[in-house]
Amino acid sequence: MTQQQYGPIPCFVRSLPQCLSIYLNLPENLIYHPQIRDGSIVLDSPQWNKRPLPIELEIVAVKNSVFLLQLQKKNLEGTVDSYYMQWDHEFLTLQLHTI
Q: In b/e form, how buried is each residue of 80-99, taking b as 16+ CB within 10 angstroms?
């Protein structure tokens, strides 16, 4: 993916929870929004690197990841805002490969 293909790179990419809400119109109770304490990302993020992953984190990871294929299908159908979705798709593809 290059800037020439899709224009300037956005300053921010949407998170998976944001994409699920925006593109699939999922209700908030079906989406897990990770809570990172302000100024504590260094303390809160390493828990996701533990192996085996704690069961509580497995549960919330599955909650969002079950929608990844549906989100990809929506992207391939071309029914969403192509500019942002192309960049979001690159980010989500990386997430899909890490699961």
A: beeebbbbbbeebeeeeeee
- Can you list the residues of the chain whose pLDDT is less than 70? 1-7, 9-10, 78-99
Q: Which helix (H) or strand (E) holds 87?
A: helix 82-98
Q: What are the domain boundaries of the chain?
A: 3-28+51-98
**C-alpha closest to that of 71 among 25, 24, 21, 17:** 24
CA distance 83 to 9: 9
3-state secondary structure of 28: helix
Give pTM, 2 decimals. 0.66
Give the residue from 21, 33, 34, 36 showing the smallest Cα distance to 80: 21
As given in the structure block, the two tokens for residue 31 are 């989406």
